[in-house]
Backbone:
């Protein structure tokens, strides 16, 4: 962390739940913000301000004057331009220490899985049911937590789907409502500050998940009535008959702040000096491994629960676990250590390894 970054995040790092270690965890995280609109605007702004290292923005729309009362990423001069371009410029101006990647496309069932698999978790601010279901299904398939919110008129909802033991979006709403029965914001209107409130809740849930602190909205649906300023938290459970999330294992795991970590250079040295006592475990996807790997054993994070017996021989060894940036591997380390493995996270993942070792 540079002196400039330390000064920028000083107030945040004073929190004992964050500290320098938590700030480094935020810097290593990658979050895909789906929809650069009323919800995506505050989500992206607060994630960038907090120092989330890699932020992806998905949107295919252009800025319209009717957006400006709620979509605070944009100014009047941005009207007519592409949202992704204006959003990226605003976020980079806010915090030049974070990487912003734009995806100027319409997310659907054909491309959602490939794109979402590139990130550690998702903040879903989509404004159509088709996109929400595509996001949910891709998150279930790739094991990415789905931090969700929606707004309509004066009402808002938020939850975290795809968390351990919790429901997916289809558990609550198995199928989209009939077309035309639920008005969009363009049809029914929305109070401009409401997406700001719900998007800030989303950003809070994302930061807590990355840091591994507090209690999340997983297994709960938070409802907000801005007219009465009443908030209710409803318990929701996984639908045992859900054909999407209940056919596989729990695929994402909360991470405590205390997991052991090792830098890439030290990890490479251990593997070279103690080959009989140290093993390397890659918890990325098959596609990522095929494109580039460091050797060792491949066992994707979302397959850990039902394939754990395949690595029983590693119980007697030190297991160095890596992914792309260190976030998924941190989840794997937490899961493995609870089950008796001497697992250690490789800080920064394969990206840091390629910079520091090869």
Residues:
């Amino acid at each position: 962390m540079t002196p400039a970054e330390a000064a920028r995040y000083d107030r945040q790092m004073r929190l004992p739940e964050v500290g320098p270690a938590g700030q480094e965890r935020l810097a290593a995280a990658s979050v895909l913000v789906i929809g650069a609109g009323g919800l995506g605007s505050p989500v992206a702004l607060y994630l960038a301000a907090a120092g989330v290292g890699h932020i992806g923005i998905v949107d295919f729309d252009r800025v319209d004057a009717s957006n400006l009362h709620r979509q605070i990423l944009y100014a009047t001069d941005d009207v007519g331009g592409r949202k992704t371009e204006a959003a990226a410029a605003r976020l980079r101006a806010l915090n030049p220490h974070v990487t912003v990647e734009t995806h100027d496309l319409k997310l659907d069932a054909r491309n959602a899985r490939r794109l979402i698999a590139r990130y550690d978790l998702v903040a879903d601010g989509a404004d159509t049911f088709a996109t929400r279901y595509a996001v949910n299904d891709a998150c279930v398939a790739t094991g990415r937590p789905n931090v969700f919110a929606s707004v309509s008129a004066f009402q808002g909802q938020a939850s975290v789907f795809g968390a351990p033991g919790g429901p997916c979006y289809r558990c609550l709403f198995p199928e989209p409502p009939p077309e035309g029965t639920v008005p969009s914001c363009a049809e029914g209107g929305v109070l401009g500050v409401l997406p700001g409130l719900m998007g800030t809740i989303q950003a809070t849930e994302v930061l807590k998940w990355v840091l591994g602190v507090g209690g999340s909205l997983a297994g709960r649906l938070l409802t907000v009535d801005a007219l009465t300023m009443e908030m209710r938290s409803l318990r929701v459970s996984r639908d045992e008959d859900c054909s999407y999330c209940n056919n596989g294992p729990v695929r994402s795991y909360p991470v405590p702040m205390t997991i052991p970590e090792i830098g890439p250079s030290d990890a490479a040295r251990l593997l070279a000096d103690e080959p009989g006592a140290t093993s390397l475990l890659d918890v990325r996807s098959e596609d990522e491994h095929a494109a580039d790997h460091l050797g060792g054993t491949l066992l994707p994070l979302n397959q850990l629960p039902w394939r754990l017996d395949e690595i029983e021989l590693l119980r007697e060894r030190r297991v160095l676990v890596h992914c792309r940036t260190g976030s998924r591997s941190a989840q794997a380390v937490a899961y493995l250590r609870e089950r008796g493995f001497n697992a250690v996270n490789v800080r920064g993942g394969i990206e840091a390894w390629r910079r520091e070792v090869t």
